[in-house]
Specification:
There is one protein chain. The chain has a 3-stranded antiparallel beta sheet with strand order 1-3-2. It is 73% helix and 2% strand. The chain folds into 2 domains: 268 residues, ABC transporter involved in vitamin B12 uptake, BtuC; 75 residues, Arc Repressor Mutant, subunit A (Orthogonal Bundle), CATH 1.10.10. The chain is mostly helical. It is elongated, with a radius of gyration of 32 Å. The protein contains 17 helices and 3 strands.
């Protein structure tokens, strides 16, 4: 039976808890369009780590993380000051703080390496993380942090939701928006600083934004998004720790980021409604429906031209000339409608049956009612409404059509004098 070593259990628990806290806070950063804030704060923390070592000579994680926390808070305050008291935009302020602080950190790190025994300081692990160094006391800190993040989210859920989606309205009803923004920023600083030891400066933003971005693909509700982000963050943290423990010389931090990236890619591809595959399937379904409705409408209009006689089959050659379709395309749509019980094939032509006639009449009804609406209510010329009605006939719901008919006073004909089919009783 496979059993994790003692240090690996620490890594597993720490990475999972950090993923939960990062995923929850990352949702707010993502929704407030502050995805780069975590990245800027992570880079801002590096000079704090270096200065803490230079001032104390200690490599104790608590000392170094305290320096990172101070530098991160300073960076966050500078960003807020830039945005509030100058004309510098937020993205510019993020870039300034990120580059200046990170550049300072690299200079200090290079200087430390040149000091006596400086190459043994091990500060470079904060660039890419070293989760194997997590100790039980670190797990306690991460656990307390996770509890604080989840607790704040639950207690202030309504306020934070309003802050994300309608800040101006929140301020107008007395919501302390600035204090809430400051609270979220401070929590983000703490999560970033704690995450430095696990995934490092370069990769910590991925533990914040990637689970949140993946969760966003699956839902439109904030509560569900927070739960999914926590699940994705904790799950990918655990998966990264297990893979790192099972494969020799594979760093935990980058593996966690790769696991998060896999979840994000799968979400972007297969999430309902927002996924690319779902969108492609839905687009194809809509295209088929439009082609089918167009064919039904063409058959209906041909029957009108024959004195309202829909019993005669319409030759395929004639239908091909209506919309410039190829015979292959037309036959594919016709086969689908025939199998659906709306058409009959006869003498190399197509004929509407009773169900097909009703479906075709419904499409024509939508088209002609919309033309009537555009000419009566919007006073558009009759020769300017056909193209718009061609598009709207595929989008109007039955309820909208009934309301439109009532609004227009149940007209019998469209602006061109053609009869508008009546709605079936």
């Amino acid at each position: 039976m496979f059993e994790l070593p003692y240090f690996a259990r620490n890594v597993l628990l720490g990475a999972s808890l950090l993923g939960i806290a990062g995923g929850v806070l990352g949702c707010f950063a993502l929704l407030r369009r502050q995805s780069l804030l975590g990245d800027a704060l992570a880079h801002a923390a590096l000079p704090g780590v270096c200065l803490a070592y230079m001032l104390t000579g200690s490599k104790t994680p608590l000392v170094l993380l305290a320096g990172a926390l101070a530098a991160g808070i300073l960076g966050a305050m500078l960003i807020l000051l830039f945005v509030r008291w100058s004309r510098v935009k937020e993205d510019t302020a993020l870039g300034i703080v990120l580059s200046v602080f990170f550049g300072t950190g690299i200079v200090l790190l290079t200087h430390i390496q040149k000091l006596p025994y400086g190459n043994q300081s091990g500060l470079d692990k904060y660039l890419f993380g070293q989760a194997a160094t997590l100790l039980p006391r670190d797990i306690v800190v991460i656990g307390v942090l996770c509890a604080i993040v989840v607790g704040v989210t639950v207690l202030l859920f309504k306020e934070l939701k309003l802050l994300c989606f309608d800040r101006e309205y929140g301020a107008s009803v007395g919501l302390p928006t600035r204090k809430l923004e400051l609270l979220l920023t401070l929590l983000l600083v703490v999560v970033v600083v704690v995450g430095l030891q696990t995934v490092g400066v370069v990769l910590v933003v991925a533990t914040l934004i990637t689970p949140a971005a993946a969760a966003r693909q699956w839902t439109e509700r904030l509560g569900v998004m927070l739960a999914l982000a926590a699940l994705f963050g904790g799950g990918t943290g655990a998966a990264g720790a297990l893979i790192s423990a099972g494969v020799a010389r594979v760093p935990t931090g980058p593996v966690i980021v790769l696991c998060s990236s896999v979840i994000l890619i799968l979400s972007v591809l297969f999430a309902p409604r927002r996924g690319l595959v779902w969108s492609a399937v839905e687009e194809r379904r809509v295209a088929w429906r439009i082609r089918s409705e167009n064919l039904l409408k063409d058959l209906y209009k041909w029957g009108e031209q024959q004195g309202d006689d829909w019993t005669r089959p319409v030759p395929l050659s004639l239908l091909m000339g209506v919309r410039g379709q190829s015979g292959r395309q037309l036959r594919r749509v016709a086969r689908r409608l025939t199998s659906g019980g709306l058409l009959r094939s006869a003498d190399d032509g197509l004929q509407l049956n009773s169900e097909g006639h009703a479906a075709a009449a419904a499409v024509v009804r939508k088209h002609r009612l919309w033309e009537t609406y555009l000419t009566r209510r919007l006073e558009l010329p009759t020769d300017h409404v056909h193209r718009d009605a061609d598009a709207m006939e595929h989008a109007l719901s039955d309820r909208a059509v009934a309301r439109l008919d009532e609004l227009l006073g149940h007209p019998a004909s469209d602006p061109h004098g053609r009869p508008i089919p009546r709605s079936p009783a």
